[in-house]
Amino acid sequence: MSRELILGRIRAANAGARAAGPVRRDYLRAHADRTPDESVGLLAENLADYRALVHRTDAAGVAGVVARLLAERGSRTVLVPDGLPAEWLAATGVQQLEDRAESTARELDAVGSVVTGCALAIAETGTIVLDGGTAQGRRRITLIPDHHICVIRVPEQVVSSVPEALERLDAARPLTWISGPSATSDIELDRVEGVHGPRTLDVVLVGE
């Protein structure tokens, strides 16, 4: 009985919403008129506020930065999603593992690091969005390993705001929104990292 009552109320609310017409979307698309460089700078600032580690380089320097980060981490294995540019890992001697559908959570947890690209990044919120596209792999490979290196092409993959991001994203794809490394806190506000995702997030901003 309670189930039918709740569903009935939902149907009634939805009917009222349809009668009211389309949802108004006259809110601000962004909170400032920024240049591409200013958006990239704001993204880097907000990522750092979330305790992500931000690195800047050009296309020729990506391999060197990734190799250094893997070495500093002491990773012996790196998970490589399908479509990841081979040149990003050209300078490392770390064993490369393919993203396999049959990999178990235990196997993924034993991986040293994962390197991916992204769909885009949002400057105002310091958020990286993955959609399972080229160079990103399946959602679980960025949630289980303890170290994630994410490469972002700037400024073309950076948008200023969430509304701008939604215009470019496909809602039918498996979207993962990342704002810094995984963290939570208990009732006493003691911060614990690595609970439901990577403990360490390295972000490589690749400019021209």
Short structural description:
It comes from Streptomyces smaragdinus. With 208 residues, the protein is of the alpha/beta class.
Architecture overview:
Residues 99-206 form the LUD domain. This is Lactate utilization protein C. It comes from Streptomyces smaragdinus. The protein has 208 residues and is α/β, with parallel strands linked by helices. The chain has a single domain, classed as NagB/RpiA/CoA transferase-like (Rossmann fold), CATH 3.40.50.10420. 27% of the residues lie in helices and 25% in strands. It has five helices and twelve strands. The protein has a six-stranded parallel beta sheet, sandwiched between helices. Strands 8-5-6-9 form a four-stranded mixed beta sheet. A hairpin with a 4-residue loop joins strand 5 and strand 6. The radius of gyration is 20 Å and the shape is globular. It starts with a helix and ends with a strand.
Fraction of helical residues: 25-40%
Enter the CATH topology name: Rossmann fold
The helix/strand class is alpha/beta
Order of helices and strands: HHEHEEHEEEEEHEEEE
By CATH, the architecture is named 3-Layer(aba) Sandwich
Mean pLDDT, to the nearest integer, reads 90
CATH classification class = Alpha Beta
Question: Span from first to last CA?
Answer: 62 Å
Shape: globular
Low-confidence stretches are: none
Count of domain modules:
1
**What is the total tally of β strands?**
12
- Rg from alpha-carbon coordinates: 20 Å
Q: What percent of residues are in strands?
A: 15-25%
